[in-house]
Amino acid sequence: REAANIAARSRDNLRCPIIVIMGHVDTGKTKLLDNIRRTNVQEGEAGGITQQIGATYFEPSTLLNRCKKLNDTEKLDLTLPGILVIDTPGHESFTNLRSRGSNLCDLAILVVDLMHGLEQQTIESLKMLRSKGTPFVVALNKVDRCYNWKACANDPIRSALAEQEEGTVQEFRSRAEEAKVQLAEQGVNSNIYWEMGDDDWQSSDFVPLVPTSAISGEGVQDILLLLCRMAQEKLWRQLMWCGNLQCTVLEVKAIEGLGMTVDVIVVNGTIREGDKVVLCSMDGPVVSEIRGLLTPPPSREMRVKSEYIHHKEIKGALGVKLIGNGLEKVMAGTPIMVVGPDDEEEDIKAEVMSDLTSLTDSLSVD
Ligand code: GDP
User: Fold this and answer.
1) Each residue's pLDDT tens digit, 139-152
2) The whole model's pTM is what?
3) Does ligand 1 come within 6 angstroms of the Cβ of 146?
4) Which of 11, 121, 227, 285 is the one with CA 20 to 30 A from 137?
């Protein structure tokens, strides 16, 4: 199995990148997520967008559909199997959560209110992203509040700007310039994303700026396509599919009829019903057998309390609810490991707990 896993690791076999939305309160994080997640009316029910545990999954065809107008010129050959967007915008713990030594999140959208520039939590988010080495884009949101903005619903941002009068474009330009200066004061080099040179794009710490309106949707295509491009062109090494489970606990919850459950993000690899796993609890390592792997039903109408779809196996990246015994004291933000047929249980216990030690160390440094 090990050999098969190694053979399968290739740039042509990637997992979904995990994306988180961050930023100061009231910059429009929730609105942006809503806009990104909006159900495609023409396709009927959520069309290729499915609600997972703690996250929303977007199919490649849905992404291409959403970005069609922009991709007619950008021509990105999408090789990702989709993207997974964490559902709790602004929740900084998601950026801090790690899974076996690596970050839980592959990419972030840092939302800035174009009218306000950088604010306190923007700066805190910036520091955290940089200390974790998480690549991110800055959404210069509320572009529609520039004087006399004419809404061009859901258009690529350059088409929308082309529709505006000169004064409106000038206001946008000077506000964007201001944001750039403020970012530079924090030691961050940035530019409007379509004005970045090849060197900027190659540089690992250069940040693209994307003007957006979370209300009328201008620039949302741009954000989605840019994140996909960054993921597959810059992050493909960390996104290569591997058979080994990489999995992080988001939350421990009692659910009526199911008992204690653990919501996790399976970052990479496969988890199966019947797997023997080791988790971290306040009292030390816990060994448990996976008795159920659950995801919410695909359509909202079906979403009756405690009605879930049961799976035999789940491949990352995906959010899923686990059922098992002894999960009461499991801690959020800790890793889960499978005890394979050739593994010593004691070794896995030690490894899981050592990861926890380095996790708490890294948190206390922040
Ligand atoms: P959060 O605290 O960052 O999640 O911000 P919200 O998404 O709750 O938005 C805060 C306020 O800004 C709400 O009143 C939104 O309607 C408004 N808002 C968010 N995005 C935009 C935008 O792009 N344009 C305009 N005009 N208002 C926005």
Assistant:
1) 999 999 999 999 99
2) 0.90
3) no
4) 11
